[in-house]
Design a protein that fits this description.
The structure is a homodimer of 434-residue chains. Chain A has 434 residues and is α/β, with parallel strands linked by helices. Chain A is built from twelve helices and 26 strands. Helix content of chain A is 30%, strand content 24%. The interface between A and B is large, with 62 and 61 residues.
């Protein structure tokens, strides 16, 4: 049998140094790679995309406020100066935990230590067929697709002569009342009320309906009930119709059935469920109900030597509560996994991980947000300023910080959206006119 | 037979005003629409894309220096305040010049006057099958596709273990020595020499070959011979191999045959021929060899009442020489067509068009360009500064001027490229590794 072991940049370097493979260039994987800088290991970071994505601002690309390159940076550039790290653009198809090698379409890559940080993907609650009608928001491509659908909906409404079909084009359903759903709903309502108003001749974009559907009893369940209430009020002021306790029972590209009521809508966005990336299934370990990998407190996986799992893909309880799927969790876990790998090489036992919460934030359109930090609660403009500050600071290292702020200033002052482009298509969606 | 006349925003306005339909939102069509502002006509501008594109800078999107939204603006926004103008996102499939109506997939739009400004498309000299292997640069989507191919070529080379295949990934062929070909070749050489250098571990991007293939006797044939010479020298200094008198005889995604020599290259870009947009064939008039519509000096078309053709799609000689396919020509023709339509409504004869040349410019990578203005010739840094000035001034009206300048400053000072993103795909191109 032919040896199809790949000669990775790391593996062609002088041998004898442990080879640390990191799958995924998100907050967790990238932090782990950076934390191994200067250590006596060879690091190979593998991602199926060439860029690290600042996911917290992805919804702003989907709603035409920011450009993709404002929130995405080539992983190569970030690790450029880290000589012991190399980057491969490739898609991993599985992990052989006993043979200690990563399986790619093109071959295999052996590892001494593997940090699995491939994150989560959308979950349609057993309805994969909903994916086409209701795209989710995880990647730049998702964001561009959603942006395209939102902009084309208004264009198609301007075209449409049949009133009921026109109404369907001007109805937007967002499924899921978490931070992403709230941010999308607020942004779309803003576009309809403030950005598009003067651009059309036959339709009045302000008539657009934006429905936020949450199956649970309140939106932003991760926050305290009173902040959920504040967020719902802020959304209503923006013109968003918030429905809680409304599970979606059916979905197609013509509309959705909520409970037993059918709503005609040509634009449906999915912000409901997520599940661990499919790669986890190849590990041969028992996954939790969300498809995540249960890990030890030292972030390792029982029975899989040298394997660490971090970020949204990891399932770890702290004080009896599962850790939330937040960037700060992934960052802290990435740093900790790197530390425990260095200790393992030195023959020391791994240290238990403890998450130090940095609070939670969600923004609701223009100049409104909710925040919970160190037990304190903010909402409204103060919380929004705080959100702005946190994200500008967070963008440090992103060359684009200055440009993002410039874009934001423009958007805020002029009620303008800079990136209102329909690309990757010249066709309007289906829906023959009368 | 059912009436499938579309109720355009204009046609539902109070009747009795002549309906001017403009096909194409480029420099020509947009200028024509703006020139009709305040006139007693209803204007409907139809484009199959939602944005006006600042084409002279499109190559900078293709080479990851600028974002799409830096050089593209929604047509709606530009015409927002012009009450007698409305915009439709639709693809025209033909023109019924006798029935005076535009044919769309969804129906027909009647006109009293039609300004045809759909421009030109790539011509592969009777080899349409080359299009897939060698994309051209006309739209944002083209630019993103080319950007993707350039970036993926370096990624794939880093992957590739077979030296000859690696060489093919690092070989870039640009077919066509006009301004676009020269600008692309210069920019790609720059990326390889200055931007990518420190990002890879196994390949040396500086080893990349960039070949500029011109079938004619010199590059930039529109310029004077000495400036063509200067441009060729500047390209050589950047590391571009310039071949003149080398027609491409065969082409596939593995390489190209120039004359009778085969060059293995995984990235081939087409900047050679253009021809009038296919729509011209529906007019039932004799087109010129380039598929362009021969027009009268008043920009109208013999035998087609109310029809005007402008920009790259129009074929008009001045002083015995055909007018060049340049933005200033399209802009001046757009203004003139609008004026002659107003005169026609007043029962006055159309005035003959005369192009006032504003000179020619082509840039060759970093801080080098050639320019011919009012008989004067510039080259090198002076010409480049002039190029910069002209384009910054030209971008007036584009909200993004400030951001573009910021991006340029960054690119220039840091040898950095802001938009190095591979989107609209997660797959690397074909080419199994050994």
């Amino acid at each position: 049998m032919p040896d199809n072991t790949l000669h990775t940049p790391a593996s062609v370097q002088p041998k004898g140094r442990p080879h640390v493979v990191i799958l995924g260039g998100g907050f967790g994987g990238l932090t782990a790679a950076k934390s191994l800088r200067g250590e006596k290991v060879d690091v190979t970071l593998i991602d199926q995309r060439n860029h690290h994505l600042f996911q917290p601002l992805l919804y702003q690309v989907a709603t035409a406020a920011l450009n993709p390159s404002d929130i995405a940076v080539p992983i190569r550039r970030i690790l450029r100066k880290q000589r012991n790290a190399s980057v491969l653009l490739a898609e991993a198809v599985g992990v052989d935990t006993q043979g200690k090698q990563v399986l790619l379409a093109e071959g295999t890559i052996p590892y001494d230590f593997l940090i699995l940080a491939t994150g989560a993907t959308h979950s349609y609650f057993g309805h994969p067929e909903w994916a086409k009608a209701a795209p989710g928001l995880k990647t730049i491509d998702d964001a561009l697709e959603i942006r395209k659908r939102i902009l084309l909906a208004f264009e198609s409404a301007e075209w449409e002569t049949d009133p009921s079909r026109q109404k369907a084009w001007l109805t937007f359903i967002i499924v899921g009342g978490g931070p992403t759903g709230v941010e999308l709903a607020g942004a779309i309502a803003e576009i309809a009320r403030h950005v598009m108003t003067r651009d059309f001749r036959r339709i009045n974009p302000e008539k657009a309906r934006v429905l936020l559907m949450e199956a649970g009893s309140r939106i932003l369940p991760g926050f305290s009930p009173d902040l959920s209430q504040r967020a719902a009020e802020a959304l209503s002021r923006l013109g968003v119709e918030v429905f809680t306790g409304h599970p979606v029972t059916a979905l197609d590209d013509g509309g959705a059935t909520i409970g037993d009521e059918r709503v005609e809508a040509r634009t449906i966005l999915w912000a409901a469920g997520v599940e661990g990336s499919p790669l986890a299934r190849s590990l041969g370990v028992q996954l939790d109900s969300g498809g995540r990998v249960p890990i030890q407190t030292d972030l390792s996986v029982t029975g899989a030597p040298g394997l660490f799992v971090i970020g949204d893909l990891a399932s770890l309880k702290q004080d009896g509560k599962p850790l939330p799927a937040l960037a700060p969790v992934a960052v802290q876990e990435g740093r900790h996994a790197a530390k425990n790998i260095v200790r393992a090489i030195q023959g020391l036992p791994g240290l238990p991980f403890r998450y130090r919460s940095q609070g939670m934030l969600a923004t609701i359109g223009r100049a409104a947000a909710v925040a919970e930090v160190a037990g304190l609660k903010f909402y409204g403009f103060v919380a929004w300023l705080f959100w702005l500050l946190v994200h500008i600071v967070w963008l440090i290292g992103f060359r684009n910080r200055f440009l993002v702020v410039a874009e934001w200033a423009w958007t805020y002052l002029r009620y303008e959206r800079g990136a209102r482009l329909i690309t990757c298509t010249v066709q309007r969606p289906s829906g023959k006119r009368s």
